[in-house]
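Morning F.,

Quick status update on the modeling queue. The single chain you submitted on Monday has been processed. Sequence for confirmation:
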Amino acid sequence: MLKPTMIVLAAALALAACGRDTGGRALSGGLLGAGAGAGISAITGGNAATGALIGGAVGAVGGAATSCHTINLGGRC
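Structure tokens below.
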């Protein structure tokens, strides 16, 4: 049986994309961060929702702060 946190993690990874603009990178970073935060928190015995909130916030800030010129988008920026 799949745990809800594993479903959230799988959905976040499936929906995540690199993003060509700042908003897209913030969104994908937030989704990846939320999934990773929930998964790590659940594995370590913490609160998955708190892990998702913290991971999502950190991921969104990281994605928004990243320039398309500093990541490899295959020449498409």
